[in-house]
TrEMBL record:
Organism of origin: Kitasatospora arboriphila
Short name of any one Pfam family annotated for the protein: HATPase_c_2
Superkingdom: Bacteria
A GO MF term: ATP binding
Keywords, in A-Z order: ATP-binding, Kinase, Nucleotide-binding, Serine/threonine-protein kinase, Transferase
The name this protein goes by in its record: ATP-binding protein
Organism placement in taxonomy: Bacteria, Bacillati, Actinomycetota, Actinomycetes, Kitasatosporales
Keyword ATP-binding: yes
Ranges annotated as spanning the membrane: none
Residue ranges occupied by any Histidine kinase/HSP90-like ATPase domain in the UniProt entry: 8-130
Family annotation (Gene3D superfamilies): Histidine kinase-like ATPase, C-terminal domain
């Protein structure tokens, strides 16, 4: 089980890098070529959501993207340290936009069959997975 982990500060310019790395690792793990655009889009949406939560909540932690190659699945976890996303931000005086958050999660759910979203006091986690082919992948 191989794992690649990215950690980056909550800046929009890092989302593109996360998308590109996720697609490259997914290809190498054996995710079907026809699904790679979905992987790229889902990771971009999950990372953009995490960046938005950090910025709205003035959180200082990092965003973590774990790319995990399992025997029959390719798993991606996007974790934020933005705290409870449903709480208003004391720094900005704003509350999280539930419509914007719901739209982002709907896009992810439309792209990924196997998705799990959790949120707690420390932050949130989006876990997504795709099947991998059993044929070896050329490097």
């Amino acid at each position: 089980m191989a794992t690649v982990e990215l950690r980056f500060s909550a800046l929009p310019e890092h989302v593109r890098t996360a998308r590109l790395v996720a697609a490259a690792v997914a290809r190498r793990a054996g995710v079907d070529e026809s699904v790679l655009d979905e992987v790229r889009l889902a990771v971009g949406e999950a990372c953009s959501r995490a960046v938005g939560l950090h910025q709205r909540g003035a959180a200082h932690g990092a965003i973590r993207v774990a790319l995990i190659e399992q025997e029959k699945r390719f798993l991606i976890e996007v974790a934020d340290e933005a705290g409870d996303a449903s709480l208003p931000s004391p720094a900005s005086g704003e509350s999280a936009d539930p419509g914007e958050d719901a739209l982002g999660l709907a896009v992810i759910s439309g792209l990924v069959e196997d998705v799990e979203v959790t949120n707690g006091g420390e932050g949130g986690l989006i876990r997504m997975s795709w099947p991998v082919s059993t044929a070896p992948v050329a490097v």
